[in-house]
């Protein structure tokens, strides 16, 4: 089976490519490097000991996609390529709608032409908005609060309509909760440009003294310690979820929705304490006001993925803390030795 992975040099995509290669799939990666680096291509080859084709192309360009499909003839697509920064999406909505929607539509069009009928899509827990009931089931009410979230919901609708129009088409909509951690080799992981927006990369940069202090956005939420609660999932567990989704998609046509989370929520303070304990390092923090648009708590009910895909998260919080730190320490060592 040959799988075309868009955004396969990005954070989640690179870990999924590793798992696909380990499971014996043939892989083709298309990534325009807008938020990743070519080094990741080499690192994946080092980790797996396997080679695979890489195309530095924009998946919004239909002609390029058509050429790649003609040459590679993939059996399935896993579509990670997208812009993903919530704040930026508020400032540049059209850039987000264009990249995140056109990419999916062009892929669907080219897939139809080449009779490729299996699509796995990166959606997000952001489609649940501010959830009314916790833990969140796939059947929960959907709503979004920013253009990034809207692109995810619109993509879900597009894929549902494609499935209605083509009874052979299979679309797996995977709603990720909060991926953190890194491959145990420390060779691939999350490496955001500039100052991180998300909690985990921020904690790590404070621990390495690249940033001075963590600002905790609010301690007056209706949560056990007042700080925000999220469902953090190890990126390798998340990657494995894609393999299970792919297996299911080859068996059954139609659109399906799955939460990929652990089912457990941790607060910001719990995350800081756990990181400090596991890595034996201090993470200075201060409490500041709430961040606009944040919700109090969000965690998955992952039962459906377990029952229907046979998938559940295996890694614990300590693994996530250790692997996130290990990746950045190793990256910083590498940077120093290249200077
Ligand atoms: P990432 O930015 O690390 O990876 C995305 C990759 O896609 C990058 O390598 C980028 O260069 C590439 N890309 C973007 N637009 C492209 C285009 N038009 N053509 C070709 N390549 C393009 O992001 P990630 O964290 O790995 O996220 C992967 C997917 O998962 C995204 O769709 C994201 O919205 C979704 N998601 C991420 C999170 C998260 O917290 N990381 C949570 C929920 C959902
Ligand atoms: N958070 C924080 N300081 C930061 C970044 C995040 O206190 O510098 C909090 C944020 O308010 C939320 C949690 O950490 O409660 C997770 O935030 P993140 O941006 O990683 O994920 P999201 O809010 O998108 O689920």
Keywords:
binds uridine-5'-diphosphate, 14 strands, binds nicotinamide-adenine-dinucleotide, three-stranded mixed β-sheet, 43% helix, alpha/beta, seven-stranded parallel β-sheet, 11 helices, globular, 339 residues, Rossmann fold
**SSE string, helices as H and strands as E:** EHEHEHEHHEHEEHEEEHEEHEEHH
Bound molecules: nicotinamide-adenine-dinucleotide, uridine-5'-diphosphate
Individual helix count: 11
Could you tell me the strand content as a percent range?
15-25%
Low-confidence regions: none
Find the CATH superfamily: NAD(P)-binding Rossmann-like Domain
CATH architecture: 3-Layer(aba) Sandwich
Total separate domains: 1
CATH class membership: Alpha Beta
**Biggest sheet features:** 7 strands, parallel
Would you count the extended β strands for me?
Answer: 14
Distance between the termini: 42 Å
What is the residue-averaged pLDDT?
97
Tell me what you see in this structure.
With 339 residues, the protein is of the alpha/beta class. The protein has a single domain (2-338), classed as Rossmann fold (3-Layer(aba) Sandwich). Helix content is 43%, strand content 17%. The chain has a 7-stranded parallel beta sheet with strand order 3-2-1-4-5-6-11, sandwiched between helices. A 3-stranded mixed beta sheet has the order 12-9-14. Helix 7 packs parallel to helix 9. Uridine-5'-diphosphate binds at residues 178, 197-199, 202, 214-217, 228, 230, 268, 291, 294.
């Amino acid at each position: 089976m040959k799988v075309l992975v868009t955004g396969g040099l990005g954070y989640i995509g690179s870990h999924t490519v590793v798992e696909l290669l380990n499971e014996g799939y043939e892989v083709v990666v298309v990534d325009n490097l807008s938020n990743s680096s070519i080094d990741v291509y080499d690192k994946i080859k080092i980790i797996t000991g396997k080679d695979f084709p890489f195309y530095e192309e924009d998946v919004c360009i239909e002609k390029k996609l058509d050429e790649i499909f003609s040459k590679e003839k993939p059996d399935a697509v896993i579509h990670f390529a997208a812009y993903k920064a919530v704040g930026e999406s508020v400032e540049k909505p059209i850039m987000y709608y264009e990249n995140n929607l056109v990419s999916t539509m062009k892929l669907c069009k080219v897939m139809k032409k080449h009779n490729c009928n299996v699509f796995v899509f990166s959606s997000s827990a952001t489609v649940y908005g501010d959830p009314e009931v916790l833990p969140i089931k796939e059947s929960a009410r959907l709503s979004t609060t920013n253009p990034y979230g809207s692109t995810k919901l619109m993509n879900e609708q597009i894929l549902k309509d494609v499935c209605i129009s083509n009874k052979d088409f299979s679309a797996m909509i995977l709603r990720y909760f909060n991926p953190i951690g890194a491959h145990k080799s420390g060779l691939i992981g999350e490496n955001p440009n500039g100052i991180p927006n998300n909690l985990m990369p921020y904690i790590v940069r404070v621990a390495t003294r690249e940033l001075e202090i963590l600002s905790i956005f609010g301690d007056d939420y209706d949560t056990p310690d007042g700080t925000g609660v999220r469902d953090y999932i190890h990126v390798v567990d998340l990657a494995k979820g894609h393999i299970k989704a792919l297996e299911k998609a080859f068996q059954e046509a139609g659109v399906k929705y799955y939460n990929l989370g652990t089912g457990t929520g941790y607060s910001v303070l719990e995350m800081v304490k756990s990181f400090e304990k596991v890595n034996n390092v201090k993470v200075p923090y201060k409490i500041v006001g709430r961040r606009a648009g944040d919700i109090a708590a969000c965690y998955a009910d992952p039962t459906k993925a377990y029952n229907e895909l046979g998938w559940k998260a295996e890694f614990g919080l300590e693994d996530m803390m250790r692997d996130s730190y290990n990746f950045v320490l190793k990256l910083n060592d590498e940077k120093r030795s290249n200077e």
